[in-house]
Every structure is written in structure tokens, then in C-alpha cells.
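input
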Amino acid sequence: YPDEPEDHALGRSRGGFGTKFHLVTDGRGTPLAVEVTAGQVHESTCAESVMSWAMVYFLGEHDEVRTPVKVACDKGYSLGRLREWLADHCIDAVIPHKENERARHDPNMTFDRETYRRRCVIEQCVGWLKEARRIGTRFEKLAVNFLGMLHLAMIKRYLRVMF
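output
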């Protein structure tokens, strides 16, 4: 398979041997885009690419790309590179700063706590997707097959929301 990573998106993390999937949802928890990586890969490595995929789903009338107004992420995505990428796309970053970041101790920095509280919808979507046994326990050897199962679970979610 040409899109199959060498490590099959399997690797060690603090939770053991496994796979991470990086998910973007809308404000209602509807999944928009997903990517899979090995367990030890840092979250920020594919943040821009998965968000770019999600922006395709925000197509409005006349095929213009609509971007979200704000993006809420956890501290794992607190990188200057990602903040710059979001600013270049006119998206407000609602990402708490890590304890060791200088900006965290800057009194001029503001943080939108109300928007960040709504980040729970993505955690709920991840939990809903992992209710599917094939997602919670990865049975597929190939990453492309696991990604296909994720897409199938997302389609099931769309159908449930629509009907």
C-alpha cells in the first residue's frame, strides 16, 4: 500500500503499545478529519495537516473555503509554529500555555476559558468512536485499514446525527 507508514502506525507511548488518532470536530462534536500515527509520535506533528483536511469540510457556497473562528486544543498542541499557522489562517488559538512557557506568566496574555470548556466535545467524540470495538481495540495490522475503520465509524456518527 503506498500510503502505509513503515511502522504501521504502531508504537510505544506512556499508555503502552498502540496507535494515536488525531481528530478534528466541529463545535457539536461531529468528526471532520482524522489521521493515525504511532503511539510515541507527538500530537503537534500532524496538527496542521489534519486541520487542513478539516477545512475542506468547511466549504461554503460557491466553493469558497470557510475557516473556523476558533480552535481549542490541549497543552500538547501549545507550539509557536501551530499558533502561527492558525494566525495565518485567521483562526483564534484557544490553547493553554505549558508551565515552562514564558507566555504563561505574561499578564498581558488572555485565555478564553469559556471556549476552552467546550473542548469536551472532542473528548466525547473520541469516547463515542472508541465504543466501536474495532476502534477501541485495534484489530487491523495495517494503518490504512485502521483509518478506514475510523472513517466508517465517522460515517456511522454522521448518519446518527442526520437521522
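quick obs: Strands lie at 11-13, 16-25, 31-38, 70-72, 92-94.
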